[in-house]
Write a structure and sequence with these properties.
Layout (H helix, E strand, L loop, with lengths): L3 H5 L2 H7 L3 H6 L16 E3 L4 E9 L15 H5 L7 E8 L6 E3 L4 E8 L10 H8 L11 H4 L2 E8 L4 E9 L6 E3 L5 E3 L4 E5 L3 E8 L6 E4 L8 E2 L5 E6 L3
Antiparallel strand pairs: 1-14, 2-3, 2-13, 3-11, 4-10, 5-6, 5-9, 6-7, 7-11, 8-10, 12-14
Length: 241
């Protein structure tokens, strides 16, 4: 886990930021660096490389952030009706991030595609500029998370005794979200499960469905920090066997 300044000072990121758009499309989005796979049933690892946008516990019908002209709620993001509080952590993936997504825990992975709610996807460029420039993300620039094409991943973890969700939202320019497994496949913690092309956002959404299990965010005081998929722990899990 790194601050924005530390991440941008890394030599590999400096090289990427000097690349042309053609080079980024040809290499950056497809790179898949070797990473160790960590196993810890009492933790949930980041599903994506990127910057923490928010981390909070909310009612599924309460706005996560205030946006004029749209309801930014968990039920709107998932396009379903949950009826319990949830922990939600938003991660913004920039053009320079590794775009491989990994499993936060072991579990049975199911997913479905949802079309854009407008004629075309909304751009994420403004948010990328704000994140990389450490300018502070403007809620009005995040409408894409309400309207854009998405994949809704449902993971059922037997150890938790409940499901959780990984929301993948595609950008305007390249709307490709490709999975490596068939639906309803058991996938181990830390394994690759999908790739998202171009800039995008990935949200980890954990309903408080099992009263015997507790979830605590490890990044609630790390807004704007950079995390890596399968490497950085986002959530501590209490009560898991």
């Amino acid at each position: 886990m790194e601050t924005t300044s530390d991440w941008m000072a890394r030599e590999d990121i400096k090289v990427l930021r000097k690349s042309t758009v053609k080079e980024l499309y040809g290499f950056s989005f497809n790179r898949d660096p070797n990473r160790s796979i960590y196993y810890d049933p009492a933790s949930m690892y980041s599903p994506a490389d990127g910057f923490i946008l928010y981390s909070k516990v909310v009612d599924p019908n309460t706005d996560i952030i205030a946006i004029k002209g749209g309801r930014y709620t968990i039920n709107n993001l998932l396009r379903k009706e949950l009826d319990m509080p949830c922990l939600i952590i938003g991660i913004f993936m920039t053009l320079y991030d590794v775009h491989i997504n990994r499993m936060p825990t072991s579990g049975f992975l199911d997913f479905k595609s949802m079309e854009a709610m407008k004629a075309e996807n909304q751009t994420m460029t403004k948010v990328e500029i704000e994140v990389l420039g450490q300018l502070g993300v403007q809620p009005s620039d995040m409408k894409y998370n309400i309207y854009n094409e998405r994949k809704i991943n449902r993971v059922y973890d037997n150890r938790l005794g409940q499901p959780y969700y990984i929301l993948q939202v595609a950008d305007f320019e390249v709307d490709v979200i490709a999975h490596y497994y068939k639906p309803k496949t058991l996938v181990q913690q830390g394994r690759r499960f999908a790739i998202v092309k171009n800039g995008s956002q990935v949200d980890l959404i954990i309903p408080f469905a099992n009263p015997k299990i507790g979830f605590e965010s490890l990044v609630r005081n790390r807004i704007g920090w950079h995390v890596e998929a399968g490497v950085d722990k986002l959530v501590s899990v209490e009560g898991v066997q």
